[in-house]
Amino acid sequence: MNKKLFKLILILFLPIKFCFAQTGHPILIDTAKKFSISKHGYFYEDKNLNLSIDSLINYKAANKLIPLTPGKVFSKGYTESYYWIAFDVENTLDQAVHLMFKEHSSGINQLQLYKLDHLGKIYPFGLTGDHFPFKQRPYRNRSFIYPIILMAHEKATFFLWADKRGQNLYMPMSIGRDVDIVQAEIPLHTLFGFYTGVFVFAMIFNLLLFVSVKDNIHLYYAIYIFCMLIFILEEEGLAFQWVYPNFPGLQDYMRLIMASLSCGLLIQVMQLFVDQNESNSRMFRFTNYYKRFCWSMAIIPVLMRFKSFIILEKIVFYINNFLALLTVIVIIICVVERIKAGYKLGWYYFIATVMLLFGVFNYIFNTLGITNFNLLKPNGLVVGLTAEIIFLSFALTQRYNFLKKEKEILLEEKSKHQVDLADGIFNAQEDERTRLARDLHDDLGGTLSIIKLNITAFQHKVLQLTAGEQVFYDRTIGMIEKACFDLREISHNLMPKNFEQSGLIETLKEHFITLNQSGKIKFDFVFQVDQPMESTMEITIYRIINELINNIIRHSCASKATIQILSFNERINIMAEDNGIGFNPDRDKKGLGIQNILSRVKYLNGKIQIDSNQNGTTTTIDIPIK
């Protein structure tokens, strides 16, 4: 009889012992909207991966569980263990309450919640996690939510089993009324909608710029933004919910792939932005090898999708976190190097990278379990990335202004160099013309004159020549005279006599007098030049007019021509008209005469217009006065 009574008492009181042996103080459910788990909960690390719910109930009864840190997110960094969370609740109200337990991280491999009532009965709430199809979740949400009903004054203990092996364990948890838990998702979705909108806008903006300006930096940056957008959506469980709900486990590998690609792309964008190359950076070779290594690391998670083991997952986990930190540090070092070299535009990239640095450090430290808080909402990484994208997009527009100014300076220097080169060529030509004219006049002209004198010295013997010999003699004298005349003409064309002393107008007046005395074409010369010109401009205008005259004489078949030169405040106008047969300017522009005129007009930054038909030709030239 006594033995039976003892067993009955043991059966009645054993569940109560199990349920409340390590309670501390339970979560008291009252009219509040949310309740803290960290102040009331406990955890246990299952390193051997073999504990059951019954084992945890016994451990709790034996006070073997470790209290959670009040006010802190449960975070253990990289883990190869299972973890159990336990907390007691008590409904203090006279009515049933509808609650929801929420695990916020949205990245748990496997998760299961158990309820132990005051009678010692265990109720499993269903196995879920991102290694199961999305539709298998107790509540269809990006995070893991378990609906809970507590009857009036009910007491219970909840045990949560979590598997996140091969990844970082970061588990924000909360319990509250179902309506308030659901409503709390609305501002968070709105916030992520805003950040996603910023990312999408920046991505489209850069793609349009790439199509427009064909600058590869915009294509690389658009791909980088896309990768980071997928990474953030993966972190929040939204990509699994929206894109591939029937491919469980994929998001673990997608995060690693996107992270590795992003590191390499960010290095590539930096190189293009600060114009890093082998000639101006000692870090160039390292960054080239480094970005290729980052891209190659994206292949490993693809292979892990088909076959993986815990050691490989651990190595990849730490390498990817290390790459994220190292990438930002490498970028800052490279940018500072270019800034020291005088590349002022690098300051924009430096500021953008520093913004990203705080977010990356906050995320990595949380991932490694060093810290368990977010500097900003929804998390430091999202805010840091958004700030970097906004500022760097602005910096890209400043980059174009910088490159535009730099291009204008280069074009100005090139134009000045071309002008100096053209000046040198024309000056050299004029110097050579002057030397050649002087040599022809002084040397060859003198020689021809002496030959003529020597021959004419024999005039007293001409009477003794035969008729044929006398004709030959007269013809020779005529050829010598013609040679002297041609020599004077060539010398005059090369460099008009006393041009420097007489100037453009006086030289042309004398030239037209000579033409009208000996030529078949009647030339009228009209001029009004009230201001002095540079010597280079004067001689070039003389060459243009002389070429116009030669073209009229040789090709126009005209009987009358007018040459006009007028000066205004900012330009000089030259007009040549004749009543000849005309020509086709488009067809005959390849002629040497026209080419000489065009090249000289271009040298003076002038404009030329030719109007020609069967009634004659009019050539109008406008030359700006510097």
From TrEMBL:
Gene Ontology molecular function terms on file: ATP binding; phosphorelay sensor kinase activity; protein dimerization activity
Gene3D superfamilies in UniProt: 1.20.5.1930, 2.60.40.2380, Histidine kinase-like ATPase, C-terminal domain
Ranges for domain Histidine kinase: 435-626
Region forming the signal peptide: 1-21
The reaction(s) this protein catalyses: ATP + protein L-histidine = ADP + protein N-phospho-L-histidine
Organism expressing this protein natively: Pedobacter petrophilus
The name this protein goes by in its record: histidine kinase
Keywords: ATP-binding, Kinase, Membrane, Nucleotide-binding, Phosphoprotein, Signal, Transferase, Transmembrane, Transmembrane helix, Two-component regulatory system
Domain of life of the source: Bacteria
